[in-house]
Design a protein that fits this description.
single chain; alpha+beta; Beta-Lactamase; eight-stranded mixed sheet; elongated
Length: about 475
């Protein structure tokens, strides 16, 4: 999209070319943009000069001027005691044109007042737009003040949006002649163009601000969603804790009726015994005793926990095996081969309950039921396998299930299942809404959210030098 500044320069170029083409006695045209209240910053936008003996124009800002970017604020060019009077100040404050048809007598020629050198003959025309068109309902506008502290434009329907300055050949300009009338009449189209550009700029920045706020809203919603999901992160651990009760009951059943199976507890007791016997002999100054004590605590904790085989292997890999390796490397108090063999056997026992395949009834429980129990007792519920949670609930509902506090377990599992389903639904809908906010997509078809389109319209009525 072409920038507003480029469009403004192009508009001013067209206006200057039109005026100089219509007025043979005009030699130069300059357009100044007047900013919004209360600063009313006047900035020279573009100048066009007729080449000598030709209708061709040279463009740019060839002369030094206090009105070149960044321009002058109202307080710098308004009428004020001790400061040269400027035609710009008159046009902006009075909203009236200024014609310098006699440069030697021009009271608002800054050059003549400062250096005594007269300027060219020129006519300056303010470009007016209706205050309501530019500012809407303007009861609380911040008006600029004159040097005596009185607000200007408070009783006017208009504001000055630009000033057109046209220079003429000596002796060809008179106040109120057809040249000044032509400039005044052409100024109204410039007012129309400037207001259109202002609307375009406002819409552009409003769109950018809306996009920024929309992205910010997305980030806030996403942040809140993440926080909510983190807070609800207890759900899956809570579900798996209930399954841990099923696993503990299953393993107790097997231990009671199948004593020939190998379990982790006897092996962990042997490893703990090895540590207890040699712990007093370890040197406390090099940290080995502290390592051994931590290892002893980790093994005792693993012995009483009913974790999944994967969790138990991770426990062995990260907490037990590394500390045994440090002790075996630093001292010869233990026979390395014996400890290594015990650790290898320990790892195999983690799958004892999972690997056991029942071939006959146990304690009056049918084989089919035992097979389901042996599989579901070791499942880890995640968002990817929620269907297994339904299977777990059906298993617990079986009259034959000998688990303690069955009714309480069922209530907990069903409540947690409802929470998980709600989380999935909320997450799905929220993600769709976030995508809609971020990229402007519609989500009406899926979730019933509509979207509104706002059309900005305005009517144009052109008067003399005024855009309404």
């Amino acid at each position: 999209m072409t920038s507003t500044d480029d469009l403004l320069v192009a508009t001013c170029r067209t206006m200057i070319r039109t005026i100089l083409s219509c007025l043979d006695n005009a030699t130069k045209g300059t357009i100044y943009k007047i900013g919004l209240m209360p600063d009313l910053t006047a900035v020279r936008v573009l100048s066009g000069i007729r080449k000598t003996g030709s209708d061709e124009l040279e463009w740019g800002l060839p002369a030094d001027s206090e009105y070149n970017f960044p321009g002058k604020k109202w307080e710098m060019y308004r009428d004020q005691p001790g400061r040269p009077l400027e035609a710009m100040g008159w046009c902006v404050e009075k909203q009236k044109s200024w014609t310098a048809d006699n440069p030697l007598e021009d009271p608002r020629s800054v050059r003549k007042q400062i250096s005594g050198i007269p300027e060219d003959e020129f006519h300056m025309e303010p470009v007016l737009v209706r205050k309501l068109s530019l500012y809407g309902h303007y009861q609380k506008l911040r008006y600029p003040f004159d040097w005596q502290g009185n607000p200007i434009w408070a009783d006017s329907e208009y504001v000055v949006s630009a000033v057109v300055k046209i220079h003429f050949r000596p002796g060809t300009l008179k106040a109120g002649d057809r040249s000044t009338i032509a400039v005044r009449n052409l100024a109204r189209s410039l007012g129309s163009e400037l207001l259109s550009l202002w609307f375009r700029e406002k819409l552009y920045y409003a769109g950018k601000e809306f996009a920024r706020q929309r992205l910010q809203s997305c980030e806030i919603l996403a942040h809140e969603l993440r926080n909510t999901l983190i807070k609800l992160g207890f759900v899956f651990p809570a579900i798996n804790a209930q399954i841990g009760i099923l696993r503990e009951t299953w393993e107790k059943l097997l231990k009671d009726h199948l004593p020939e199976l190998e379990w982790k507890e006897p092996l962990l007791e042997k490893l703990c015994g090895e540590l207890d016997r040699k712990l007093p002999e370890l040197d406390s100054s090099n940290g080995l005793r502290e390592i051994a004590q931590k290892l002893l605590n980790e093994q005792k904790e693993l012995e009483i926990l009913h974790l999944s085989p994967f969790q138990e292997r991770e426990w062995l890999k990260k907490k037990i095996a590394p500390r045994w390796n440090m002790l075996l490397t630093a001292t010869d108090l233990w026979e390395s081969g014996q400890i290594t063999a015990l650790l290898a056997l320990l790892e195999k026992t983690f799958s004892t309950g999972l690997s056991f395949v029942p071939s006959s009834d146990i304690d009056g429980l049918p084989v089919e039921f035992l097979a389901r129990w042996s599989k579901l007792a070791y499942v880890q519920i995640t968002s990817a396998n929620l269907v297994r949670l339904d299977e777990v609930i059906l298993l617990v509902e079986e009259p034959a299930m000998p688990v303690s506090h069955k009714e309480q377990m069922l209530r907990v599992l069903k409540s947690l299942r409802a929470i998980v389903q709600t989380i999935q639904e909320v997450e799905g809908k929220t993600n769709s809404i976030l995508q809609s906010l971020r990229f402007g997509n519609r989500v009406e078809d899926e979730y019933g959210f509509g979207s509104a389109v706002v059309d900005l319209k305005y009517d144009e009525k052109i008067g003399v030098g005024v855009f309404e």
